[in-house]
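Changelog note: in this version the structure field was regenerated for every chain. One regenerated record is shown below for reference.
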Amino acid sequence: MATRTILIVDDETAIRDMLRVALEMADYQCLEAGNAQEAHSLIIDKRPDLVLLDWMMPGTSGLELARRLKQDEVTAQVPIILLTAKGEEDNKIQGLEVGADDYITKPFSPRELVARLKAVLRRTDPLAGATQICVQGLCLDPSSHRVTIHDQGIDLGPTEYRLLEFFLTHQERAYTRSQLLDHVWGGNVYVEERTVDVHIRRLRKALSIDNHENLVQTVRGTGYRFSAQGY
């Protein structure tokens, strides 16, 4: 399994250092942010597997950032563990109600942190027990990362794979190029919208067995849609 990336969000450098050491010893990769704005940019661009988020920070609080992340379709699926000295029952409920996946009260041991983190990752892993998705003989298996058409293997680049996976899990809805950039590329501002067209062409070329390229439809004036209707 690929190494998981954890984003540590805390305004205190010493706490970030302590958390990073504990997580790196448990074989996780770490990203760090000292405030909500920096954290949000990293979440959009780097797509961490989980966010360790301090509740009390200057400016935008961890609680408010968690609320924003869970309300945005692009970031709603990112697991969040809130870290705080607040131990009262209503604070815990408040944290979970905004969508946090778990809540750890300071002080805590590194072993407890890693155990809770592993538990959240297991619960929220989109590939845990995932079954393959099939449409008109086109099948994508997320556990093996394989794509086939009528049992014939299809060679896709990593971006085309992510594009197809997004389309298969969001069928019959039109998306603009900007929305596809956010969902598939992570909202990286250095990628132009025309890049989407290039990868759509590559994806269609790879799917050109028995006219499966027609599943990826151009919606004039909008962008693209994946649909088996009219196939």
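Spot check on this record: The chain has two domains: 5-124, 133-226. The chain has eight helices and twelve strands.
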